[in-house]
Every structure is written in structure tokens, then in C-alpha cells.
What we know:
Blueprint lengths: L1 H17 L6 H8 L5 E7 L12 H9 E10 L5 H15 L5 E8 L2 E9 L4 E10 L3 E12 L1 H9 L7 H8 L3
Antiparallel strand pairs: 1-2, 2-6, 3-4, 4-5, 5-6
Amino acid sequence: MKNVFKILGIVGVLCLISCNNERSLQQYFVDHQNDNAFIAVDIPSSLLDKDEVELTQEEKETLESIKKVNFLALKLNDDLKVKYEEESEAINTILSNEKYETLMRMGSNGTKAVIKFLGDDEEIDEVIVFAKNDEKGLALVRVLGNNMKPEKIAKLVKSVEKMDLSAFKQIADNFD
């Protein structure tokens, strides 16, 4: 009987040690999907009309590596200033985890943005863009894919003006 308690005790301690209390980015998106203060959109890659646009074969392959885009935004107004600060801090805390590699930081006209990724230099599984503006609000974009190549993603971004991004434009118009 003592051995059973020892085994249960060891299993219990191992479970406690293995539990990670850090909040994941995925959990953050799930937690805010139904929050009325946020604009939340999940966009499957099938909404991007790849066949109607003139893309190179390499660009099409890169686009095919993207499975889904999650978009979450908080439009700032006087009632949401405290929430904006709290949510900005929460996102920064999540993204400060060492598993997220910083790809780029940028800023312009009061907007600060950081682009991070999960994966390695050869194959990216997730790209995260976090942008905030102390007058307009914040936006968090999560691009999910399988084995996305960094150099190919960069080329695709350069050719993005060829694509019909009306779904994204409608979302952006909600911020003006």
C-alpha cells in the first residue's frame, strides 16, 4: 500500500512540474473570440483567390503552405483605454517567450509592430504580427502553415498587391 502512495505521489509531482502556467497565443485567441470589444476573424487560405491572380509557381506554392490566418483587433476608444493597456501587456508577455523568434521590429506614425515566428530558419510553422497604436488600437495576426519558407514568405509579401485582399481591407476599414 505504501508503494501505491509513493507512485501516486511521484506521478502527482511530475504532473505539477510538467504543467505550464504560461498562456499560449492560441489560448489568447480562443479566449477573445467572443469578446465584443474585439474584432475576431479566422480566414482560411481558400479565401485568397489564388487562381484568379497571376502568381509565379513559387508564389502559389508558398500561398499553399499557408493554412489559415487568425486576426484579432481591439479598436481603441475612451472606454477601452484600460483594456487596451492590459491586452497589450498580456500579448507582450506571451510573445516574450523564448520560443518566439523576432523577425523584425518596425514603427511609423505612432504605430509599433513586431513580427515573430515559430519554427526555425528553414521551416516556419507560424508567423505572428503584433501592431499597436496608442490612438487607434491593436491588432494581432497569426499566420498558420506547414513548413513555410522564410525567403518565400518574403517574396510573397512583396507580391501581395496582386492579390484580392478585399476581406482584409474590410477589416482594416473598421479601424478608420
